[in-house]
Amino acid sequence: MDTKNFKVNSKNSLVEWIGRKVTGAHNGTIEVKDGDFTFENNNLLSGKFVINTRSITILDVEDAETNVQFASHLASDDFFNSDQFPDAVFEIKHAEPDDNNLYYVKGDLTIKGITHSIDTTLQIVKTDNVAVLDAKIVIDRTKFNIKFRSSNFFANLGDTLIYNNFDLNVHLVADAQ
């Protein structure tokens, strides 16, 4: 068996997020803290990546003071409680290869110390030295005790409603070890 390990290069990796509400959407980035992937006979066997919830930035709010307030709110217990839970982790439990460098992946996502199984598709372009992984992960925030302005928990929110699902667009660059 030919087994090869890859370590995520945090400087070249990034997660972009999009959250939607009745009146529009917000977007930003989150830093990738670390991660690793193992391939066996050129197929993804396992992997994990960690994002730093303290690094959440907002790209669409230009007013500096409003941006800082918004970022602080996302770091608060209303959302990610970043002081207590600075890391969010996705760990691949099963990967099924398909055509065109795609993998159907089942993994465990942990946010705020709460873990749920997530299914997604990864696209992986790999050489002997580098593996580039891209995925869009849609997350129901209420499963991770992020209830702020969710219609599942609050009535009559009107145009202050924030939709439960948010997107993470994950771009990971990993170097062979």
What topology does this entry show?
Blueprint: E1 3-8, E2 14-21, E3 24-30, E4 32-40, E5 43-52, E6 57-58, H1 64-75, E7 87-97, E8 102-111, E9 114-126, E10 130-140, E11 162-176
Antiparallel strand pairs: 1-4, 1-11, 2-3, 2-11, 3-6, 4-5, 5-7, 7-8, 8-9, 9-10, 10-11
Organism: Chryseobacterium ginsengisoli
Protein name: YceI family protein
Domain Lipid/polyisoprenoid-binding YceI-like: 5-175
Runs in which pLDDT lies below 50 for 5 or more consecutive residues are: none
Helix content: under 10%
Cα-based radius of gyration, to the nearest Å = 17 Å
Strand content: over 45%
Tell me the structural class.
mainly beta
What is the rounded distance between the termini? 17 Å
Summed up, the domain count is 1
Task: Calculate the mean pLDDT score and round it.
Answer: 91
What's the main sheet like? 8 strands, antiparallel, barrel
Principal-axis shape = elongated
CATH architecture classification: Beta Barrel
CATH class annotation = Mainly Beta
Let me know the CATH homologous superfamily.
Lipid/polyisoprenoid-binding, YceI-like
Number of helices: 1
Secondary-structure element order, N to C: EEEEEEHEEEEE
Q: What is the third-level CATH name, the topology?
A: Lipocalin
Pfam families: YceI
InterPro entries: Lipid/polyisoprenoid-bd_YceI (IPR007372), TTHA0802/YceI-like_sf (IPR036761)
Protein name: YceI family protein
Domain Lipid/polyisoprenoid-binding YceI-like: 5-175
